[in-house]
Design brief:
This protein is mainly alpha-helical and 461 residues long. Helices cover 51% and strands 4% of the residues.
Length: 461
């Protein structure tokens, strides 16, 4: 299938936080195969984040510190965690990410799926690199590695899971939220899986270890099978269940296609995912090559997540903040702070992104950023441990209008408003909605672009 401009916009809005106008014109008329080959590259991941060094102080040494010293250490840790957050967002906005932007988009999805909140910045970075590395790889590899990440084991209390007193939290969430989905296992399965995961933990260097003395070696019954299972065995058995492929495929469909699932399409995707041995790239390729993905009912039917909205807006308008704390402010105000999901279930998404206050804020943010307006100090609210230093009375940002306008330099004056309208709002707008061409190209361009960002349609993808 040859992709027209509208279809390309739909594809890149869903997978890459939009597409530069020049690239859009270049790719118009290309086949889905050609375009998706550029999106999903068979490359070796080498873009690890290494901004947080290995901790130089051990947990034992921390216990010896005074309360004042512990407080200072916590403040330093929060500062590093915020820097990691901003580093990830800025990376997605930067040109460096463009060849692998779909991977980052998928990593944000997996961050919500394998939701984890960790106050130790080094462990948070390890976890983040793991989901980024496997974001378009194999779900089995992703599941195994995330399950052994110290940040996840700590978040779900498996460090306290010992044969004398099994802790079921990790085992329960692995099945309910990460793989099978509720209703596809029993309470006995949870108890036996928890016994299999006993001894899984990590050492002072943040490395996964199995403490053999704490592991339950006795026989376990799990999903109809009997054996002296360990944690790896449990994950293998889970992956053999077709319910796992169905659960993951459904969640991917709702995130990238539509909240209203076509069960026939889902069955096709789920079977394909299972038979491919959980190849994420092949699953996404099948979705993005399907004609139904480009049907009108699947266009503009999803509400942009706060990160989708923020990253795409900043990439489109070449926005750069004067202060890094501004990235944190906007994430919190919009309701999605990376590395700080609300709970183990992640962000609910969908219509929960929008309420009466957040919708007004979303409509106002373009105005604030593009015209250097001010947000009142009382509007700055932050999650515990994420409050940036200092007080803010204004979100100061630089907008490179020239760079944005240059993308349209080949467009004739008479076509300018129509082109920018179709680019920013792929859905058709009423005729005469935008102001008439004033004779001043720059002025007309800015007025039109500014007006389009105020529309509720700009919140959809």
């Amino acid at each position: 299938m040859k992709l027209n401009k509208n279809q390309l916009l739909h594809l890149f809005n869903r997978t890459s936080y939009g597409i530069p106008f020049g690239d859009l014109k270049t790719m118009e008329g290309n086949s889905t195969g050609e375009v998706i080959k550029k999106l999903i590259k068979e490359d070796h991941f080498n873009a690890y984040f290494n901004i947080i060094p290995t901790p130089e102080i051990s947990p034992q040494e921390i216990k010896m510190l005074s309360e004042v010293e512990k407080k200072m250490l916590n403040e330093m840790a929060m500062d590093k965690l915020q820097k990691l957050n901003v580093h990830w967002v800025k990376y997605m906005i930067s040109e460096k990410s463009f060849p692998n932007l779909f991977r980052e988009k998928m990593a944000v999805f997996w961050h919500g799926h394998f939701a984890c909140r960790e106050r130790n910045p080094y462990l948070a970075q390890k976890y983040l690199n793991t989901i980024r590395k496997h974001a378009l790889g194999n779900f089995k590899d992703l599941l195994f590695e995330v399950s052994k990440e110290p940040a996840m084991l700590k978040f779900l209390n498996n460090q306290q899971n010992k044969k004398q007193s099994p802790n079921e939290n990790f085992a329960r969430e692995v099945m309910e939220l990460f793989t099978l989905g509720r209703g596809n296992y029993s309470e006995e399965d949870i108890k036996n899986a928890a016994r299999a995961f006993t001894g899984w933990g990590f050492n002072k260097n943040g490395e996964f270890v199995i403490r053999k003395k704490q592991h339950d070696e006795s026989q376990k019954n799990f999903l109809g099978q009997k054996g002296n299972f360990n944690g790896d065995d449990i994950l293998e058995i889970i992956l053999k269940q077709k319910e796992t492929a169905n659960f993951i495929s459904r969640k991917v469909y709702q995130h990238f296609v539509s909240e209203h699932v076509d069960e026939n399409h889902l069955k096709e995707l789920s079977d394909y995912f299972y038979e491919s041995h959980y190849d994420i790239a092949l699953l996404m390729e099948k979705i993005l090559k399907s004609e139904w993905f480009y049907e009108e009912r699947n266009k503009g039917n999803l509400i942009k997540s706060p990160i989708d909205f923020l990253v795409q807006f900043m990439k489109t308008y070449h926005v750069e903040f004067d202060s890094e704390e501004s990235y944190l402010i906007l994430q919190k105000m919009l309701g999605q702070t990376l590395l700080y999901p609300p709970n183990v279930a992640g962000w609910p998404g969908g219509k929960t992104w929008i309420d009466s206050s957040t919708l007004m804020l979303r409509l106002r943010i373009p105005e604030v950023i593009l015209s250097s307006g001010e947000l009142k100090e009382e509007e700055f609210k932050f999650p515990q441990g994420m409050k940036p230093k200092g007080k803010f009375k204004k979100l100061a940002a630089q907008v490179d209008w020239d760079a944005f306008l240059q993308e349209f330099e080949e467009v004739k004056d008479k076509d300018l408003q129509n082109e920018i309208s179709e680019y920013l709002i792929p859905n058709a707008l009423p005729k005469g909605f935008l102001p008439e061409y004033s004779g001043d190209r720059n002025k007309t361009f800015k007025a039109s672009a500014f007006l389009l960002t105020q529309l509720p349609d700009f919140q959809l993808c």
